[in-house]
Amino acid sequence: xxxxxxxxxxxxxxxxxxxxxxxxxxxxxxxxxxxxxxxxxxxxxxxxxxxxxxxxxxxxxxxxxxxxxxxxxxxxxxxxxxxxxxxxxxxxxxxxxxxxxxxxxxxxxxxxxxxxxxxxxxxxxxxxxxxxxxxxxxxxxxxx
Length: 144
What we know:
The structure is a single chain. Helix 1 runs parallel beside helix 5 and helix 2 (47-55) crosses helix 5. The chain has helices spanning 15-26, 47-55, 70-74, 84-93, 121-142; strands at 4-9, 31-36, 78-81, 101-103. The longest helix has 22 residues, at 121-142. It has a four-stranded parallel sheet with strand order 2-1-3-4, sandwiched between helices. It is globular. It starts with a strand and ends with a helix. By secondary structure, the protein is of the alpha/beta class. 40% of the residues lie in helices and 13% in strands.
């Protein structure tokens, strides 16, 4: 049973905050958090990520960038990474986490969700839709 989920991207200011909040919305009985492999620690969500999320009815307010580490990873039942390089990073520093680490886009043909950082609003919108699609698949699989 997966009661807690950690969403991981690079900076923890674009994709993983969106992925975290979207899963929280779909799975209110689960604990969902996010972190980055190269996090902008202490930073709020990216301005464009905030804007695109808000346009889609999702709030990222109060988000603060957090660095992924072994201790954090061990606290969660499931770790969902945006790209394969994030899984490689996690397994390099914490090989014991391999069995519970998967792609966020796993149920969407093992989709890697690209980084929209410093790209256009259109890029963020596209990434938002991919995250939404993948999150809906996870919610179907994990239930409430």
